[in-house]
Amino acid sequence: MKENKITKIIHISDLHFTSNFVVEWGNKIIEDIKNVEPKIVVITGDLTDNGYYEEYIQAENFIKKIKCENIVTVMGNHDARNGGYEIFEEIFHNRYPLYTDDQTIILGIDSTEPDIDDGHIGRANYSYIEEKMRNVNKLKIIALHHHLIPIPKTGRERHIPVDSGDFLKLIDDLKVDIVLSGHKHNQWIWKLNNTFFVTAGTAVSKKLKGKGFPGYNIIEFDDSEITIKQINLLNDDTHTFKDKRNYLKS
Ligand SMILES: [Fe+2]
Ligand SMILES: [Fe+2]
Questions:
Q1: Which residues constitute the domain of residue 221?
Q2: pLDDT digit string (tens) for 199-208?
């Protein structure tokens, strides 16, 4: 009988080293990741507050403590500030990281522009994204910093990628299962057509919305279902969202 294997992914975002990082929260998430034993950890940007080298070093040291062999990291608008985009490339080697195994493909995308907070994917990158994602019989995930659809309770809408309409169409055409993003510091899930758009809160920083809390997501999937757990880092309260896998593995 064919084994229906469950894959676990942890999605964290918006660490905001240095001034906004909370040490106890950092320790807690390192411990949580160790306990969950995910196959992959995805970090959707804003590792730093200002893109400064010192902040990058502290973020890098934190990421080194994460007990997971596969870590996919993309750049946030804060990381691209002050020439920080060069340091990101130096440390992480790739602004478009690609992870694949027999079940999963995750493509990270740099949606930032230096010293501009607005997102931008860029039509020139669409053919690369299409080349990697078209006709792939795996769970397809795109990870980028900026949200593509407005997120509630985050004030006046801004910073959505300037080409988000075209990019949403590409995501739909390519039958992407999940899009992971950050930036808004508020956990949220939208489902548009057959794709889940999952935004993480800030994992470990004080940059909270209202009386919000730090948190992260656990994504689990098998051949038929996707489960997304939104975890409150402070008290482990969990909001679970479960749905069928719309683009079934054949
Ligand atoms: Fe952020
Ligand atoms: Fe951001």
A1: 7-244
A2: 999 999 999 9
Average pLDDT over residues 44-49: 98
**Dist. CA 29 → ligand 1 center (Å):** 17
- The number of distinct structural domains making up the chain is 1
Query: For position 79, what pLDDT does the model report?
Result: 98
16 alpha carbon, closest ligand: 1
Contacts of 34 (CB under 8 A, 6+ apart): 67
Q: Does 2 reside within a domain?
A: no
Q: How far is the CA of 43 from the centre of ligand 1 (A)?
A: 12
Question: Which ligand is nearest the CA of 200, by number?
Answer: 1
Q: Cβ atoms within 10 A of the Cβ of 200, count?
A: 28
Ligand closest to 112 (CA) is 2
Q: Is residue 1 part of a domain?
A: no
CATH code of the domain covering residue 18? 3.60.21.10
Q: Is residue 180 part of a domain?
A: yes
152 Cβ neighbours under 8 A, 6+ residues apart: 186, 188
Residue 42 has pLDDT above 80, yes or no: yes
Residue type present at position 26: G
Query: Does residue 66 fall inside a structural domain?
Result: yes
Ligand found nearest the CA of 116: 2
Kindly tell me if the per-residue pLDDT of 250 is higher than 60: no
